[in-house]
Amino acid sequence: MLLPDNVLSIYCLKGELTISDLDIAGFIGNWEDDGYCFLFFRQPADEAVERLLGKHPGLILEDQFTMTYRQWQGGFEGPLKIGRFILSPPLLKKVAQGDEIGLKFDPGLVFGNGTHPTTLACLTAIEIACAGGKVERMLDLGTGTGLLALAGASLGCRQVLAIDNNMLAAVTASQNIRINNLQQRVLAVNGLAQSFVDLPSDLLVANIGYPVLKELLTAESVRHHHWLVLSGLHTSEVENILKLLEKLNVVVLKHWHSETVWSTLLAITAA
User: Fold this and answer.
1) Choice between 190 and 235, residue whose per-residue pLDDT is larger
2) Would you report the helix, strand and coil content of the chain in percent, each value rounded to 5?
């Protein structure tokens, strides 16, 4: 586990790497995104990265950074209260009180420490959907750290499948599932959201962004789900999704606007 004052050496490469290429001393993770990869080390690894570039001429070193883990994760040290949920790092004991729900949470190197505006909206939407006690199966597409999947399980979902196409995210989500002892309810899988969207669920959660979301929402996929929580949308994109949902006979129950930039929708498929 990384501590707030641990110093990270980060190398941004243009191109793609396989896991087998990354057997380097001090290496702790690789975040892949849109044709780039970010290599994280516990100490400077200039020579190792130079050898890696020599082995793969198609790779280009775009930039490198040195920062603390606190800086990388935007200051998350916990405990952090989001609605009823109390997020605490695994080494920090925090007892939930009253109707609070305590979750141990380690974002690792994955973007998303629970403070993004869409996180609060998604957690609130999931809580509304689960309030009736009839949500047994949940599908979380673009799970990231696994936080929304953990929330669903803690609210009573008995079967939660958490999907992310980024290997580091899937591994991080799996670790968070284990430290919360929710392995019997939640499974994290590395894969494309498009490959899993047709699996039936009582609750589909997709905090995944407009381009993928637009592709996921089809008449075939929507009929497999009852509740829908859709997020990661900019204000300029949400109108297109609303029009698409209307065509698919999906009723929007609530629309959250966060900081006039982000939108989250809670919807239900018409009977």
Assistant:
1) 190
2) 30, 35, 35
Strand runs labelled E in 22-73: 27-33, 36-41, 60-68
Which residues, 6+ apart, have CB-to-CB distance to 238 below 8 Å?
A: 255, 263, 265
Are 141 and 193 in contact by the 8 Å Cβ rule? The answer is yes
Angstrom distance (rounded) from CA 203 to CA 139: 6
What are the φ and ψ backbone dihedral angles of 229, each rounded to 5 degrees?
-115, 115
Taken as a whole, the chain contains a residue count of 271
For residue 236, give Cα distances in angstroms to 224, 257, 263: 28, 12, 9
Token pair for residue 85? 């949920």
**Location of structure tokens 């239900």:** 268
**Amino acid identity, residue 35?**
G
Which domains are delineated in the chain? 7-72 (3.30.70), 111-269 (3.40.50.150)
DSSP state, residue 51:
H
pTM, to two decimals = 0.88
CA distance 41 to 54: 19
User: 10-14, 86-90, 198-202 — which is least confidently predicted?
Assistant: 86-90
